[in-house]
Amino acid sequence: xxxxxxxxxxxxxxxxxxxxxxxxxxxxxxxxxxxxxxxxxxxxxxxxxxxxxxxxxxxxxxxxxxxxxxxxxxxxxxxxxxxxxxxxxxxxxxxxxxxxxxxxxxxxxxxxxxxxxxxxxxxxxxxxxxxxxxxxxxxxxxxxxxxxxxxxxxxxxxxxxxxxxxxxxxxxxx
Length: 174
Ligand code: IMP
Fold this sequence. Notes:
This protein is α/β, with parallel strands linked by helices and about 170 residues long. The chain is built from three helices and ten strands, in the order E-E-H-E-H-E-E-E-H-E-E-E-E.
C-alpha cells in the first residue's frame, strides 16, 4: 500500500500476496467443512474469483446481487435484493465475500437475512475495511486491508460502473 502523490493505492502484487494469506487462514478454519462462499455482486466478483482459486479445498460458491451504493436508505439500511441465492444456506457453513465494508449497512442487512435462514455458521470476509465510516456495529471476520476514508476504485470497485477491471485499487479524486 502506498500513497502515489497524495492518492491512496494498493498494488496488484500486494493484493495477490494478501489474498494468499487470507486463503491460508480460511483453509485452516474450514477444511473438510465444504463451506458455501456467497459473493456480493457486483463489487466482490474479482475478489471472490481470486480468493476461491487460492483455496485448495472443497467449497461451493453462490452470488447475491444487491442494490448499488447510494440506492438504499442510509437511515434504515434497507437494501434491495436484485438476485437471491440459488443454493440453500440452511445447515451450511457460510462465508459472505464482500469487496468493502463502509457504513456497514449493506452487510448488516445481508448478514441478518442469511442468518434468519439457519446456516450452521456465518462469517464475513471483506477485502477492504473503511472502519472510520462505520454506522452500525458489524465487523468482518477476515479483512484484507484497512483503508482510509477515501473513494476507491478498481479490482471490482466502481464509480458509475467504471474502473471495475483495474487489477489494482486506487483512490479517485473527488
Ligand atoms: P456500506 O453499506 O456503506 O458498508 O457500503 C458497502 C458498499 O458500498 C460496497 O459493497 C461498495 O459497493 C460500496 N462502496 C463503499 N465504499 C466504496 C468505495 O470507496 N468505492 C466503491 N464502492 C464503495
